[in-house]
Design goal:
This protein is mainly alpha-helical. It is 73% helix and 0% strand. α8 runs antiparallel to α9.
Length: 429
């Protein structure tokens, strides 16, 4: 464990020293940290991590906790409902279609797979992660409306997928004979209902306390930020202790707390949770490289590799094209949004949740997820800067010829408040 902590500290320091220089290259933060993990683990054997290593599981869970809280707390639901339809279409139409198409393709590619297993694959690989294609949402030449939509989608689809994942885990446990119908139903009600209650109570209650302390001058600015991080961690632990879904509770708590404290605490109060999410996500990719990618490659089958390719292309692009139909956006925009839907940390942790629940066939299901994330890490990281430049050049020509195209529309002030997608994205105010 000491060797792993030294590796993590050294890697974070090394990347911090060259982060600005690397920002314009194909070496994204996820690629850098995953490469360090691969080198230190499977190649040099400086650290020895397995899929069931408690340190790996704890750090990955901590990363997703901060990511979920930061993503959801940055959303103002009332304002978001007033912004242009693109974000809503990607989440309301594109996300469900991605889950369904992912399940259908899995059922076709993997002979003999149970329908609920195919559904789990589709659900685990539905969320996107902006960190794997940083330049896609960080390049200011890319239209703001497109960057905003990708940012919002990446920030919220993991939380929206969680209830569906929970339902199909319960279905899998019943189908595999691990639980009775009644016990599974009770567990599901607790997981969904209990998590929602814990999240609302923690978010509203904790948020009100933080807001009141800030308004009365009791809480120093830096401690307001620390309080929000403590709120996220505490919510997860309480929900987990009562056998509810800690991740879902944290996501709900972030939504609730963000609504309560937004505009009433120090402007920098959310920065600590954002930075914690960034750092833990980077560490998460290091752990994926050190302990998960090579074993998954060793067990890979041709069918798994085929599905990984389809997941990043057809399964992503077709739902996006349907979601963006009749919006007026040009084909290059549809292609840009469709291609840059990378899979990342949320999918990996979702796979861990499936394993932790002892779902039948979990090993094979998670191997598909790890392979897809590894492929996404490479292809989206390498193509992000180039793709952003090419698309931005097209947009500039198209906007010059017709300033009224949808891509040139302004992102309204009533859109998203604060930071929605923390992992390599942009701050959208």
């Amino acid at each position: 464990m000491v060797a792993l902590l030294i590796l993590i500290a050294g890697s974070v320091l090394a990347y911090a020293l060259v982060s600005r220089r690397l920002a314009s290259t194909i070496v994204t933060a996820p690629i850098f940290f995953a490469a360090v993990g691969l080198l230190a683990g499977p190649v040099l054997h400086l650290v020895d991590l397995g899929a069931h290593d408690q340190g790996l599981i704890l750090l990955l869970e901590a990363a997703l906790v901060m990511v979920l809280f930061t993503d959801s707390s940055g959303l103002d639901v009332r304002r978001w409902t007033e912004e242009p339809a693109l974000s809503g279409r990607l989440l309301g139409i594109g996300l469900p279609l991605t889950m369904v198409l992912g399940a259908v393709v899995a059922a076709v590619v993997f002979a003999g797979i149970a329908p609920w297993q195919a559904a789990l694959i589709g659900i685990m690989l539905a969320p996107t992660d902006a960190a794997l294609g940083q330049a896609v949402v960080a390049n200011p030449r890319v239209p703001a409306v497109v960057r905003n939509a990708l940012n919002v989608e990446s920030g919220l689809n993991d939380g929206l997928a969680l209830p569906v994942l929970t339902i199909f885990i319960a279905v899998g446990l019943v189908a595999g004979g691990a639980e009775s119908d009644l016990h599974a139903a009770q567990t599901l009600v607790l997981a969904l209902g209990g998590s929602t209650v814990v999240g609302i109570v923690a978010g509203v209650g904790g948020g009100w306390l933080i807001r009141a302390a800030a308004q009365r001058g009791f809480a120093a600015a830096r401690w307001q930020a620390i309080a929000l991080v403590a709120l996220a961690v505490g919510t997860f632990l309480v929900a987990d202790e009562v056998k509810a879904s800690g991740f879902l509770a944290v996501w709900v708590a972030g939504l609730s707390a963000g609504a309560v404290v937004r505009g009433r605490v120090d402007d920098d109060a959310f920065h600590l949770s954002e930075e914690a999410a960034d750092a833990l996500t980077a560490i998460g990719f290091l752990l994926v490289g050190a302990g998960l990618i090579v074993p998954a490659l060793g067990r890979a089958t041709p069918e798994m590799l085929v599905y990984a390719v389809l997941s990043l292309t057809v399964i992503r692009i077709v739902p996006v094209a349907i979601a963006m139909a009749r919006t007026g956006f040009a084909v290059p925009t549809v292609a840009y949004v469709g291609w840059f839907g990378p899979r990342g940390l949320a999918s990996v942790v979702f796979a861990g949740v499936v394993v932790a629940n002892a779902v039948p066939g979990a090993g094979g299901l998670t191997d598909v997820v790890i392979l897809t994330v590894a492929l996404s890490l490479l292809v989206h990281g390498v193509s992000a800067a180039w793709g952003a430049r090419r698309y931005a050049a097209w947009f500039e020509r198209a906007a010059a010829a017709d300033p009224g195209i949808p891509e040139a529309s302004e992102v309204p002030e009533t859109g998203v408040y604060g930071r929605v997608s923390p992992r390599g994205g942009v701050h959208v105010e």
